[in-house]
Amino acid sequence: MKGSAARILIADDQTDVLEALKLLLKGEGYQIEAVNSPARAMSALESREFDCVLMDLNYTRDTTSGEEGLDLVTRIQAIDSTLPTVVMTAWGSIELAVEAIRRGARDFVLKPWENARLLSIVRTQIDLCKSLRNEHRLEAENELLRAEGRPTLIAQAPSMQPVLQLITRIGPSDANVLITGEHGTGKEVVAQTLHALSSRSSKPLVTVNVGGLSEGLFESEMFGHVKGAFTDAKSDRVGRFDLADGGTLFLDEIANVPLGQQAKLLRVLQTGEFEPVGSSRTRRADARVISATNANLNDEAAAGRFRQDLLFRLNTIEIHLPPLRERREDISLLAVHFLRTHAQRYRKEITGFDKGAVQALLEHPWPGNVRELDHVVERASLMAQRNTVSAADLGLQANRESSARLEDMSIEEVESFLIRKALTRYSNNVSQAANALGLSRSALYRRMQRYGI
H/E element holding 178? Predict the structure, then answer.
């Protein structure tokens, strides 16, 4: 295992055999776990990761045929096809050896064993295991970057490599994931990628900006309602949990869920059960929940604005996305990707950026992160009069907002400036910023989307 001694699982029903193997292998620096039955071997394999299994084929219930051991080989392969299994038996035959290898065993040792040969086999299989697992990891990471029909996750910067590895590792699971990071860092793209990598990818990914829902609409939007539940309920409505049944539900801006609604959300996460508004009939939904926020939920919980038990349910795994200023190696790659997309959309024949534009892109602080970059490149693709984008087409000015006077700005620039100032003042708390600006949260979200904030 990476960063530590390799871990070997030994399975044999004879105590003296277990002790002899533990003594031999510990002397070589391996971590050893010993069990005396197939059931205990499976329990160990399901709870921890091993680099090799050294196992007997015959156990107490069936001492000569090897069937218990052969069945265990098959079950081990079903759990982890990269895990090497070396089988042992005192009742060896060529037919039994062939059958064990056919079922996935990597090698076969007869009892009594020769220490040198057994150690050589174990070393070889552990080295092959590490190489195979590393190859699988690299293939999975590369698949993230090039898979057709999936969101484009551009992540070449060193600061994004741990993120990419974590996505690769947890994408196929059903674990709830909390994605954190500043506005515009690409949290929704990560959610889409996690869904695409999961066994639920053929089912819907339902996205809800819960921060934009008023407290009065939250239950109806999330759980649905029946006709007549309230004045405007002229027909039944299917809620987002129902729509996401079997798939994934992405809850964006989760920190802004009203405190009064958090208990209802917690119940669904705990039990999978809910009632549509106006109905006493309990419904069930099986949805993986991925949530996102730019706020620090631990601070929100400490301040009493977010339930601690809900936070525990949401962040089985947390993925933190670095801001664009900390992944500058990705700026050019992202800009080229956005340019290709917008040039095609607007039917413009633009081949790239000139040197001045590239320099301007790299020097800009990008307070709005990837979303701001996308917005800037989209504007540039419309403004460009040649087949390359120039610095002037980008419309970027160093430290523009801090140096420009309000009277020199357009109305849109003033509004963007004030929104950014309010978000900074209130530590990116959208509700507080909206109150300070005299806007509803949904109105502020629409403006943030418009200005690439």
Answer: strand 177-180
Q: CB–CB of 249/204 below 8 Å?
A: no
pLDDT on residue 283: 87
pLDDT average, residue stretch 277-298 = 91
Contact status, residue 171 vs residue 193, Cβ threshold 8 Å: yes
Strands (E), 181-295: 205-209, 224-225, 237-238, 248-252, 273-274, 283-284, 288-293
Mean pLDDT of 422-441: 80
Distance CA 221, CA 241 (A): 9
CB 247 within 8 A of CB 205: yes
CA distances from residue 248 to 235, 292, 320, 413, 419 in whole angstroms, order as listed: 26, 13, 19, 37, 32
Which pairs with CB-CB distance under 8 Å and at least 24 residues apart come from 237-241? 237/276, 239/274, 239/276, 240/206, 240/208, 241/268, 241/274, 241/285, 241/287
Per-residue pLDDT tens for 14-52? 899 999 999 999 999 999 999 998 999 998 887 788 899
The dihedrals phi and psi of 23, each to the nearest 5 degrees, come to: -60, -45
pLDDT of res. 430: 79
SS3 call for 360? helix
- Which pair of tokens denotes residue 37? 């039955």
Residue linked to tokens 């109150």: 435
**Cα–Cα distance measured from residue 320 to residue 148, given in angstroms and rounded to the nearest whole number:** 25
pTM recorded for the entire structure: 0.60
Cβ contact 72:58 at 8 Å: no
Q: What's the first-to-final CA gap in the chain, in angstroms?
A: 42
Proportion of the chain above pLDDT 70, given as a percent: 90
b/e map of 231-243 (b: 16 or more CB within 10 Å)? eeeeeebebbbbe
The count of other CB atoms within 10 Å of the CB of residue 373 is 23
Residues 106-126 have pLDDT tens digits of 988 888 889 999 999 999 999
Helical residues (DSSP H) of 80-230, grouped into ranges: 94-102, 115-146, 161-170, 187-197, 215-223
Q: pLDDT-based confidence at 449, cuts 50/70/90?
A: confident
Cβ(26)–Cβ(33) below 8 Å: no
Mean pLDDT throughout 261-276?
92
Asked whether residue 145 carries a pLDDT value surpassing 50, the answer given is no
Instruction: Assess contact for 253 and 210: CB atoms under 8 A.
Output: yes
